[in-house]
Structures are given as C-alpha cells and as structure tokens.
Specification:
Elements: H1 2-36, H2 41-48, H3 55-76, E1 93-95, E2 104-107, E3 112-115, E4 121-128, E5 136-144, H4 156-160, H5 168-172, E6 175-177, E7 183-185, E8 198-202, E9 215-224, E10 236-244, E11 249-259, H6 263-314, E12 327-331, E13 337-341, H7 346-366, H8 371-389
Parallel strand pairs: 3-11
Antiparallel strand pairs: 1-4, 2-3, 4-9, 5-8, 5-10, 6-9, 7-8, 10-11, 12-13
Helix pairs in contact: 7-8
Length: about 400
C-alpha cells in the first residue's frame, strides 16, 4: 500500500509540473505577441487583464484580438459618416468662438461656419485625459454633405496660381493648418477616411494645457485655399476626428461650412430661409388641424341629420313635428356674417367660444397686418369674459 501511494504522489507531482510548464509557455507566447503586434494600448490592456490560467481563455483572447483588428481595419477604410460621437469616451469636442469684427461668421442654429478663402479661423480642440495616456492626433478633412464618397479637390484656377511650390501635398490640399507639425495626407482619388486629402495634427498632451476636470484644450488655426463656387456650390462640411497612433477614431465632430466672398450676407440669408421653413411647417400643421376639425364637424352634422331623419321616418305622418331651430346664420348689411347659437349648458358655450378664438388667432398670425381680425379677437375675448359671468 505504501508503494502504491508513493507512485500516485509521484504521478500527481509530474502532472502539476506539466500543467505549470504549459501555462508558463502560453504566457510567454502571449507576451511576445503583445510586444510584436501594433495593437492599440487600451484593447491590449483589456486582453492582458483576462485570466491566463485556463487554456480556453487563450483561444478567447485570440478571437477577441482578431475581431479588434478587423474592426480597426474596416474603420480606417470606411467612408466618413457625418455624425458626432465619442466612441472612445474622451469627451471630444470642438469649441468655436466668433470674435467681434471678424472676417468669418458662425451660425448657431445651423452649426455652420461662413468664411472667406485664404482667411484663418481659430478653433479649440477639447478632450479629457484618460488612462493609460497615449499620444493623440487630430485629423481634419472636407466632405460633401450629399456625396460623402466624392473627394473635395481644388480647382485648377486657384491651383495654378498657388505660390507654394516645395510642398506638393500641401499645395493640392484645400484645407490648410497653421500648426508647424501638420502632416498632409491622402491623394486625389482617395474616398475613405485614410485615403482622402486630410491634415493630421499631433495634439499637445502636456500638463500645462490641462483645464479643470482633467480636460486638455488646444487652439488650432485653419484656412481654405478654394471656395464653394469652385466645385459647383455643393454643400460641404468639415469633419474633425480624434485618433490614436493606430488610427482608431475615438471621437468625431462635424461642422458645416461655406467658403464664400460675403460671409455675413450668406449667413443672414440661410438663417432667414431656415426661419421661413419653420413658419411654413407651423402653418401647414395648423391648416391640417383645421381641416381635420372641419371634417369632424361635417361628419357630426351628417350623423345628426341622419338620426333625425330615421326618427321621423319611423313615426306616423300625423305625429311629425318640426325640429326646433337652435341656431341662426345671416349676412349683415356691411357684408359680415352673423351667427346666433343657443346652448343647453354653460360649459358647451365656453368651449365653442374658445374654439372660435383659436381659429381667429391662427388667421391673425397669417395676416398680422389685418386690424379687423385683431379687433374681432378682442371682441371674442370680451365675449368669453361675459360668458364666464353667467350663472
């Protein structure tokens, strides 16, 4: 028995040593992959946090790692989407403050920048620091609003007169950045985010630029070497992407843009057009409600007439009595219309007066210069006060 126990204990020790050796070898392989692969820091920190004592966990890490690589690759090669987001939880944003007497204008309701060609505007990049700290870049590029796949290129007239000769990438880029560390990327055939013309600016991560709450804020200056009339006056926007060193898009902000000769005039025209569209939508909705109410009243009247007709037809001819009139409509001498209605209770009277007041107010909004409508509205309000005093 003692010999048998000794053999079992020896077998268990060998098995434990074999298991520890396999775990150690697997951990070494994982560490080697971490060093050689250019994976982003944050996903790799997540993978390293997984329990490495189970061989099944290693296969799960491999699957997750492959999924992350595919997602990064598809994100880089995808067409831009004109939406604001903060997928990396960096609270990324762009702050644009219009100075007094500036050569550019900003419209808050339209989220749109109006600026002249070759004029510089300042905009602040704002984001929150996050652990682990990693270098971040800002990528900015132009995009057509209704055709995101179409590259925004310079016209030949302005390109031929451009004084920049030594930097071909900067010369062909419509967007310019005054930061000396700016890199100009992309080609004229590029459609995806990584391939189209864009500027890439390394962001300052020093503590001297930190705001309260762990935010970093950095001012950048941009200008444009063509204007919207150069490419058929198509509606354009400026897209800002917060990226890490692996080109993962951690946040995105979209600013609509018009490069023109008279920013103030164009901004005022667009804002008036926006206001007129809002008023049109309001009036269309009011007309639709008014039409629905009219149809409902007509349907109610038809139903009442049919009920009275059926009741009269069911009785003998000798028992038919004339229906008493509870309302009277007539035309006055001055051309106005006169309506007299009898109501069975005070609540119904008040609701009818309020309905007439509402319709008169809608007509007054459409014709604000009509003094007669304004007088009628005041008369109706006085009528409601008198009706409230009735016992």
């Amino acid at each position: 028995m003692s010999c048998e126990k000794k053999r079992q204990s020896t077998f268990l020790l060998e098995e434990e040593e074999t298991f520890e050796t396999s775990v150690s070898t697997s951990q070494e392989n994982i560490n080697i992959e971490n060093v050689t692969d250019d994976m982003p820091i944050e996903p790799m920190a997540f993978l390293q946090g997984l329990h490495s004592g189970n061989l099944m966990q290693f296969s799960q890490q491999s699957v997750l790692r492959e999924m992350m690589l595919q997602d990064i690759k598809s994100q880089i090669n995808s067409l831009p989407k004109l939406e604001n987001h903060n997928n990396g939880d960096y609270y990324f944003g762009m702050v644009l403050e219009e100075p007094p007497k500036s050569h550019w204008m900003f419209s808050m309701p339209l989220n749109k920048l109006y600026i002249r060609m070759n004029k510089t505007f300042n905009i602040d990049v704002k984001f929150k620091t996050k652990m682990p700290i990693q270098p971040l870049n800002l990528r900015a590029f132009l995009c057509f609003v209704k055709d995101v796949s179409g590259p925004v290129l310079r016209c030949q007239n302005h390109l031929s007169t451009d004084p920049i000769k030594d930097n071909q990438s900067m010369r062909e880029s419509l967007l310019r950045c005054e930061n000396p560390n700016t890199s100009y990327c992309g080609t004229s055939e590029g459609k995806s985010i990584a391939e189209r013309y864009s500027v890439l600016v390394p962001l300052n991560m020093s503590r001297s630029s930190h705001e309260s709450g762990g935010f970093v804020r950095q001012t950048l200056a941009f200008s444009f070497a063509c204007q919207n009339s150069c490419f058929g006056r198509k509606e354009t926007c400026l897209v800002f992407c917060l990226e890490n060193m692996n080109r993962d898009i951690l946040g995105q902000q979209v600013l609509y843009l018009k490069i023109c000769t008279c920013p103030k005039r164009d901004r005022n025209q667009d804002e008036r057009h926006l206001e007129s569209n809002k008023n049109k939508l309001f009036f269309d909705a009011s007309e639709e409600e008014e039409l629905d109410a009219t149809c409902a009243k007509k349907k109610c009247r038809r139903t009442m007439k049919n009920e009275v007709k059926d009741e009269n037809e069911s009785n003998d001819s000798s028992d038919v009595q004339p229906v008493p009139a509870d309302w009277e409509a007539s035309r006055a001498i001055d051309g106005d219309y006169r309506l007299v209605i009898k109501f069975s209770n005070k609540d119904l009277l008040l609701r009818s007066i309020e309905g007439i007041i509402e319709k008169t107010a809608v007509a007054m909004i459409r014709n604000p210069q009509n003094l007669k409508l304004r007088q009628q509205t005041n008369h109706l309000l006085n009528l409601k006060k008198c009706a409230l005093k009735l016992s």
